Every structure is written in structure tokens, then in C-alpha cells.
Amino acid sequence: MVSLSEDLGLFEHEIVTSSDSNKSIVLCTRMLKICPDKSVPYSLWALRLLKQRQHSKAKQKFLKSIQISPNNVDRYDDWLEGLYYAREFEEVILLAERYSPNKFEFPHLIQNTVGVCFLHLGDYENAIKCFQKAISIKADYELAYFNWALALYLQGNKEEALEMNERAYKIRPLRVTFYPREVRLLKEDLEREENKIFEDFIKTKIEGFEFFIERDRAKRRGD
Predict the structure, then answer these.
(1) CATH number of the domain where residue 7 is located
(2) What is the spatial distance between Cα 137 and Cα 142, in angstroms, rounded to a whole number?
(3) Residue 212: inside a domain, yes or no?
(4) Considering the domain boundaries, does residue 93 fall inside one?
(5) Do the beta carbons of residue 83 and residue 92 sit within 8 Å?
(6) What is the arithmetic mean of pLDDT over 115-140?
(7) What is the sign, positive or negative, of the torsion defined by CA atoms of 46, 50, 55, 57?
């Protein structure tokens, strides 16, 4: 006999892994019939609505999930992450400002995500402040150092960007080996991109990665 928790787990797995958003939403409604007092179905439903660009409806579902579980940090993380992937960068920033850091499970990740949102919006100074906050929470968070380096590069401060990238490298030397892979993935994103603003941002990000790659290769050659 399958327990309720196992049954809900199967629902959740199918909702998360399904490539069909409409099917996932139907599964969310079924899940709510089984457990109307749980926040998870609302949060999963909201994430699917975000993928369909139905932002106002998604917000209603997220707020409902938070109303049910106001102290569940996963719900806040889901909401912010969903908004980020829906490219609602200003909404991400407002959400992070509205709720205290302890509402989120991993505040250093949140600060980094908000910083990347500022990068997308061209606000490099506030982006750097967010990366600094992320590092103040988790001193060895190398991704924040790299994003800080990228922000400096986008500002035109290439030498400072190299120094910051070196700090990221010292924390996690293997990260530099992933840069070519990141460039490849960004170029694939660029081929699919239809929005000129995001297209320009991706191009600039690729330039930043390639700049760091070339300087790393030069350093290895002893140039």
C-alpha cells in the first residue's frame, strides 16, 4: 500500500520532470485535492505558470503557498528562482528587498542571483554590492567572485576584472576549465534568443568569458 507521502512524492516528481506545462498544472490540481493544506502544489503550480509567462497568476499561487507555509524557506527560494528564470529581473530585486535574508534558505545564493539581475539591467555598481554581500555571507563562494569579475569587465575595468577572477580561481581552480563549456552554452542560447537586449547581454558575457580564457592560457604559456 502506497503511503500519502509516497503518493505526493510521485506527484511532485512527475510535475517537476514533465516537459508539458499544461499536464503539470493538471497534476497540481489533483495534488491539491489530496492535500489542500499543503504549500508545495501551489509553489509547483506557480513555477509552471511562470514558464507560460502568466506572471500575475503565478504570483497569486506563490503568495498562497507562502500564506500556508510562511516559515518555509523553500517557498521563497522557489518564488525568486522562478522569477529569475522568467527574466523578471526587477521583480527578483524587489522580492529580495521585501523579505529579510533569513526568509531564504541560502542567502548568499540569493544575493548572487540579485547581483546577476542587476548585471542584466546594466546596473554594475549595485551588482557588485550584491556580490560583495554574498561573499560577506560565504567567504569562499567563488561564483560571486567570478560574477564580480564579470561586472568589472563589463564596466571596462579589465585589469581589476582579472585580479578578481584570479581570486575565484584560487578558491576553485577547476572552475576555469568550465569556461569554454560556458561559452558553448551561451552561444547556443544566443542562437535561440529573440530579444535584442538579452542578445546583446549574452554577447558581452561571451566576450568576458573569452577574455578570461585567453588570459588564463597566456598565463599558462608564461606570456
Answers:
(1) 1.25.40.10
(2) 12
(3) no
(4) yes
(5) yes
(6) 91
(7) negative
